[in-house]
Amino acid sequence: MTATTDGKRHGPLLVGLAVTLVAFNLRPALTSVGPLLTQIVADTGSTATTAAALTTLPVLCLGLGGAFGPPAIRRLGVDAGILAGLVAVLAGLLLRGLGGLPALFAGSALSGLGIGLSGVLLPALVKRDFSRHAGRATGLYTMALCIGAGTAAGLTVPLEHWLGQGWAAALAIWALPALAAVVAWIPFARLRPTPAAAPSAKAAVRLWQEPLAWQVAGFMGLQSSLAYIQFGWLPALLQGRGLDAVDAGYLTALSAFAQAPGALVVPTLAAGARDQRGWIVGSLFVTVVVFAALGFGPTKGMVVAAIVQGFALGGCFGLGLTVIVLRARDAASAGALSAMAQGFGYALASLGPFGFGLAHEVSGGWAWPTLLFAAVALGAAICGLGAGRNLHVGQAARGP
């Protein structure tokens, strides 16, 4: 149950619906650019390096926004902190609608900060309000994240054609669902934090000395890097194989939509297991194999490959959020661990799209970038073998 500023309490179903709407709006700012990336580069006379920076900046800002998680919990509370993040997302989306590279970069950065702040607070809310069903609740809002990602990836190019106002208007249209989320979340935003859910500054500092916390952060960051490489570069890779912008966007959207069931099913099953190591390694292996199939396999199998790859990648992302909740003892430690894992993790994740773009520019093809994708997945698996153990932060020294 969640209290509001007037002391009333909302049922878990109503809270869950509101969280789902919030989660839906935490990815369109990221996935709407990729399908238009080739057009943006052509219209602005940019280089591949500029395109790589554009796909990297919002992910880097996710990490910076995540660093504000613990202070936001202490000063505002989880609920009002989520609202503040949503308002930043909305403002950034509107800013992108002004057109031009400066507004596009500034709006992407502001939206990234807001996504980072709201994103790190959601695990604390799950631990507080849905602690008995952490895997299922995490899977549901992760599924909503994936649906939002897929909707933006698939509809942005058709919206650009329908509006006839250029790429800036197509990007700005995603401010409408963000506005709906802001309005819907206002009744849940209380202005004072719950003391038990506010991690102390000392606790947050101690967490950075925990090997298990670093393993959780490493897994969260590296598996997220795989997703942001796909969001930013899969449309361009598919266009490089001869698909037009619309078909490439649809395939990317199909893969993103397929992440939704993966994000629901895999964390729910993994949360009920003794530990999550097998689920982590298996999901990463499938993600890499099928990404390679999309880049180099037969074109007739692209639809199936996109679905399977999306399911596996959604499972990875759901596992990243689930281990944050499972490795924490309470809402306070979940908030602190979420801020570290997503703050540091997204800063680490931002290197993936940038490195992928540079590898493509240097090599002129997709073989080197795909090898980089596999190397990132290997690093995620190594971290995941530690993060998936049945331990809590502060307990790792005693062994599994």
Automatic annotation (TrEMBL):
InterPro entries: MFS (IPR011701), MFS_Cyanate_Porter (IPR052524), MFS_trans_sf (IPR036259)
Keywords per UniProt: Membrane, Transmembrane, Transmembrane helix
Alphabetized Pfam families for the sequence: MFS_1 (PF07690)
Originating organism: Methylobacterium brachythecii
Transmembrane intervals: 47-68, 80-98, 104-126, 138-159, 171-191, 212-231, 251-271, 278-296, 302-326, 338-360, 366-388
SUPFAM superfamilies: MFS general substrate transporter
Protein name: MFS transporter
This protein's record includes keyword Transmembrane helix: yes
GO molecular function (one): transmembrane transporter activity
Record carries keyword Transmembrane helix: yes
